[in-house]
Amino acid sequence: MQMYIETVVNYIGAAMGVELGALLGSKHIFIKLFKRIVRAPQACFDVLPKGRILDRLSNDIFIMNVLLPQNLRGAISKLFRVCWLKKKKKTRNANMFMCMKNNNKYYNTTIVAFQKTKKFNKSSLVNS
Questions:
Q1: Residue 89 needs a FRET pair 20 to 30 A away by CA distance; which of 1, 28, 31, 37 works?
Q2: One MF term in GO for this entry (predicted)?
Q3: What is d(CA 46, CA 28) in angstroms, rounded to the nearest whole number?
């Protein structure tokens, strides 16, 4: 039970850490870019309209807030799974062997039963 609680706490902590880092990073980028946009001369906006600049800024913020944490969480969880599977490789192979053995036993018995019923189900109309 304690192992499950530790796993849940670690997962929540990792997710919150990634989200918090992404939010702080996007806030930092937003403040820096917004200050530069406000201080830019008017001639800059004759070439690049403010709407296009703000659209690019909001796209960068979206990437920092949504896509980056999602990809980081996925990469971190895959890394931990790979490390865990390498650690548990012997146990995993034994479990897979037992599952294959049990499935094979099940399929063999059903095939034998099917072949037995196949012999007796033929009617005289089929044989003629």
A1: 1
A2: ATP binding
A3: 27
* pLDDT value for 126: 47
Same domain, 6 and 33: yes
Banded pLDDT at 44 (limits 50, 70, 90): low
Helix (H) or strand (E) holding 77: helix 68-87
- In angstroms, the CA 15 to CA 19 distance is 6
Give mean pLDDT, residues 72-80: 75
**One domain for residues 33 and 73:** yes
Helices (H) and strands (E) in the chain, counts: 6, 0
Q: Is 124's pLDDT higher than 50?
A: no
The confidence score (pLDDT) of residue 38 equals 77
Q: Please, are residues 69 and 18 in contact by the beta-carbon 8 Å criterion?
A: yes
Residues 30 and 78 placed together within one structural domain of the fold: yes
